[in-house]
Amino acid sequence: MSEQFVGHAGRWRFAWRLVAATAVLTLAAAGCGGNGGGGTTTTPPAATTPPAATSAGGGTTVTITEIDFSFDPAQVTASVNDTLVINNTGSALHNFTIEGSSVDVDTQPGASTTLAPPAPVSPGTYTFFCKYHRAQGMEGTIEVTG
Q1: What is the pTM of this model?
Q2: Which of 3, 23, 71, 99 has its CA 20 to 30 A from that of 143?
Q3: Rounded distance, CA 36 to CA 20, Å?
């Protein structure tokens, strides 16, 4: 389905180690999280708002917001050279996973996670989701361009 970028292996290893270290420090500082709710939720409608983008030397910054049990926007287009910023504005621990890739990061409530380029996926269309709340409809689509 997807292939890892071979030419940027060393750079990717460093970037993902940095992301992993940041995630570990965030979890250690914030303690264990959970959804704290336990109530029933309904599936929110898919957002169609274009992602916020700013120039960042060779790519842009694409922001995806985790709100309660949805992503905003739920449909995203990003280049392999774009930086993804995942903001958790909800009250629960959330996760951002891109199906068929190595992307699988948690973001504490009120925190952000930054995924630096290049993307660990080849150009194509992928499903992203929160592994904790996917059953509640927390997923979206990302189109990765070259």
Answers
A1: 0.62
A2: 23
A3: 24
